[in-house]
Specification:
- By secondary structure, this protein is an alpha+beta fold.
- The protein has 2 domains: 35 residues; 128 residues, no CATH class.
- It is built from 6 helices and 4 strands, in the order ααβαββαβαα.
- It has a 4-stranded mixed sheet with strand order 1-2-3-4, with helices on both faces.
- Strand 2 and strand 3 form a beta hairpin.
- Helix 2 crosses helix 5.
- The longest helix has 27 residues.
- It is elongated, with a radius of gyration of 25 Å.
């Protein structure tokens, strides 16, 4: 008799659990799945303002997907390697991408805060260096002045900073 009571008790618990799950699912059907999110934190917005002021002849794009600026060095025909390599960067973002007037990438800028890890940053920088991008990293707690930003970008070895191209960067923006 006790076995029958135990089985009935287990069945009632399972039934109660299923009813509870169904009620919770019905309540959440009307709830949104997506919420808007600011593109930049307040700290990043303030730094973005410094970048714009320091680099008036350049375009500064915030929060750029690495998939927009990198591609695997193998063809898509080599699917296994293509998607393996793409998977190493496809979910990552660059804080700021600086481009000249012709939209050539001049430099990548990272604003490092407490969430950044030296090991992960080193791997990211290795990827972007291999693609021949220069990355400038600035400490979020000790942000550079406008003049320091301008000097750091001018000091990059990017072809877009070449004096022959400087006139292009100073041309009127459309």
């Amino acid at each position: 008799m006790s076995t029958v009571l135990f089985v009935v008790f287990v069945v009632l618990i399972i039934a109660g659990f299923l009813v509870m799950m169904r009620l919770m699912a019905q309540r959440s059907k009307g709830a949104p799945e997506y919420l808007k999110k600011p593109i930049l934190t307040d700290n990043e917005k303030e730094f973005f303002g410094r970048l714009i002021e320091a680099l008036p002849d350049f375009y500064v794009f915030p929060q750029v997907a690495m998939g927009a600026i990198l591609q695997p060095a193998v063809t898509r025909q080599d699917k296994r390697n293509y998607y393996r390599i793409r998977g190493t960067f496809s979910q990552k973002m660059v804080d700021f991408v600086v481009c000249d007037a012709a939209l050539n990438i001049v430099v990548l800028i990272e604003l490092d805060d407490r969430m950044h890890s030296s090991e992960k940053d080193g791997k990211r920088d290795a990827m972007t260096n291999q693609a021949e991008y220069t990355t400038l990293r600035f400490n979020s707690k000790k942000k550079p002045t406008v003049a320091e930003i301008a000097k750091a970008v001018e000091g990059t070895k990017s072809p877009a900073i070449d004096p022959a191209l400087a006139q292009l960067a100073n041309s009127p923006k459309v």
